[in-house]
Design goal:
The protein is of the alpha/beta class. The chain is built from 4 helices and 4 strands; from the N terminus they run ββααβαβα. A 4-stranded mixed sheet has the order 1-2-3-4. Strand 1 and strand 2 form a beta hairpin.
């Protein structure tokens, strides 16, 4: 079981590793204030190696938390497997995806 590694650097939140039901449960809720307190954030998903429906749901939760902090949020570099999951789940167009 791998975990998700999340690093904020100059407005880019880079997520690497797995976004699965096991890894998202390990993410500390206290981190959200740190991530969204300093302006617009782009979530770079290029290093995500695996994602399941819980990981996809967490991306929507991340969007909800950004709204809570009135922080503009976008997602970029979506891996092909995650793009397919988004399509299969019927949520195309609901995540603000930046042009890569």
């Amino acid at each position: 079981m791998s975990k998700a590694n999340i690093v904020l650097n100059h407005g880019t939140l880079t997520i690497s590793g797995e976004l699965t039901r096991h890894s998202v449960a390990e993410i500390k809720k206290s981190e959200y204030a740190n991530w969204f307190a300093h302006g617009a954030v782009n979530v770079d998903l290029s290093q995500v190696s695996k994602a399941d429906t819980a990981g996809l749901a967490w991306l929507f939760y991340l969007l909800e938390q950004a709204c809570r902090y009135t922080c503009p949020l976008s997602f970029s570099h979506i891996p092909e497997k995650l793009t397919k999951l988004i399509s299969l789940s019927g949520v195309n167009g609901l995540l603000p995806i930046a042009c890569d």
